[in-house]
Amino acid sequence: MGSSVLPAPEPLLSPKGWGMYFACIALVAGLAPILNLVLPNGHPMHMSDFAVSLLGKIMCYAICALAMDLIWGYCGILSLGHGLFFALGGYAMGMYLMRQIGRDGNYKSLLPDFMVFLDWKELPWHWALSDSFGATLALVVLAPGLLAFVFGFFAFRSRIKGVYFSIITQAMTFAFMLLFFRNETGFGGNNGFTDFKRILDMPLATAHMRMVLFVLTGLTLLGFYLLARWLMRSKYGRVLQALRDAESRLMFCGYSPMPYKLSIWVLSAVMCGVAGALYVPQVGIINPSEMSPANSIEIAIWAAVGGRGTLVGPIVGAFLVNGAKSWLTVTAPEFWLYFLGGLFIVVTLYLPQGVVGWLRQMGSRWGQNAAPGKGDGS
To answer: N or C terminus of the chain: which is more exposed, having fewer CB within 10 Å?
Structure first.
């Protein structure tokens, strides 16, 4: 009897891909600190503090877009509530940063200013471990992860899918937004958390701390990208793609969809929570508006514009859309929403594979046209 030989697994990245990956690490962790901290303000190559903050914020958004690609691009699950998981991670970090203020607040109290204003006498129970950085890091993962697990367990067990699942996720994030707007929940109500001063007892509003957060965000994004690529090239990732394309056939082959859907759903939520935790100290505020359904829709737009099912596409989409947003909201703020809606329509009609998919098609056509013998009759 002949023995079948399995093909050798493909490398995680090609040599060129590894080169680009390490180049990105060098840009984030090497070049950016030099341009911002070493070069003086008047130097033409100086990277301003505004640029550091803006790029750091966009990299947090890019993590969310990558998380969206894992569930939408590779598993076919469109979530319109991922802004909730982003906000939960942000609130977990915000609680710690509020405790770090200490007596430097307006009321010189150990309680956060909004609690003193509301005449609270002690911290609520869910603030018990908010002064511990280790507990905060655990909460950044557990809060969105547990909520996603509970929600996903009942949704996937009930076989809710398609537009119904999207609507339910949107309703969930809207309900949480209304809950966090209430003062009695202990999350700052409409104003949320702000006026942060320290992290790990070190001043937050310094150029060096700003750069530390920038580098940490960039390395986290690159780490999540590598993790996502490893997952999607494994058997686990192939099963997810089979779920997206033909779930009934996969069930006929003996696979249960629920463990795969639930696990990637929870991982995606945790990634958004980590992004929110990195976002808050860089931006300096977190409030219930981050849970707005419109924010969750924007995450889906980033993934669609960049290219679903490509991993790198949603990252590119996050940079393109938010870069355009940063420019348009200054030069022509009244046209931003029209631009966003028009961009989504154009991508849906003419670029179904997003910008990265279109670039790959153009590169493939150029390669075919440049091949020997093309067009010369041979």
So the answer is: N
